[in-house]
Amino acid sequence: DAMVIQNPRYQVTQFGKPVTLSCSQTLNHNVMYWYQQKSSQAPKLLFHYYDKDFNNEADTPDNFQSRRPNTSFCFLDIRSPGLGDAAMYLCATSRSPFKRGSSYEQYFGPGTRLTVT
Amino acid sequence: QKEVEQNSGPLSVPEGAIASLNCTYSDRGSQSFFWYRQYSGKSPELIMSIYSNGDKEDGRFTAQLNKASQYVSLLIRDSQPSDSATYLCAVNPGYGNKLVFGAGTILRVKS
Question: B9 — contact with chain A (CB < 8 Å)?
Answer without folding.
Answer: no
